[in-house]
Amino acid sequence: QVQLVESGGGLVQAGGSLRLSCVASGSIFSINVMGWYRQAPGNQRELVATITSGGSTNYADSVKGRFTISRDNAKRTVYLQMNSLKPEDTAVYHCNADITYYSGTNHRRAYDYWGQGTQVTVSS
What we know:
Layout: E1 2-7, E2 10-13, E3 18-26, E4 28-39, E5 46-51, E6 57-59, E7 67-72, E8 77-82, E9 91-104, E10 107-114, E11 118-123
Parallel strand pairs: 2-11
Antiparallel strand pairs: 1-3, 3-8, 4-5, 4-9, 5-6, 7-8, 9-10, 9-11
C-alpha cells in the first residue's frame, strides 16, 4: 500500500554534484522522519542524513558541509543534494521513511519503509 521510489543516481566525476529524490506514495496518513542511508561494497549500511517533519536535520560527519537534505511535504518527497562528491561516496543510496498509513477502516499503523536504492558512482 505504501511505496518509496528513489531516483537521481548515476555516474559522476569527483568534485561533481548529484541530486537524489525519493517519492512516497500510497495510503498515507502522515510521514514523520525521512532520511538517506548508503551501503558500499565491504561496508555496512550507514546513516547519511535525516530530516524531521518540522525540518530539523542531522548529518553524518563525513558529509557535513557537502550534502543537504530537504523535503517537500506536499509532494511527499525527500531530496539529497550532494556536492563536492568523492570516490568514497560511491554506494547504493536508500531512502527511509517512518510512515503512518491506513491499515483498514478506522485503523492506522506506523511502519518504517525503505526504498530499493539508487546507485551513485563517483570516479576519480
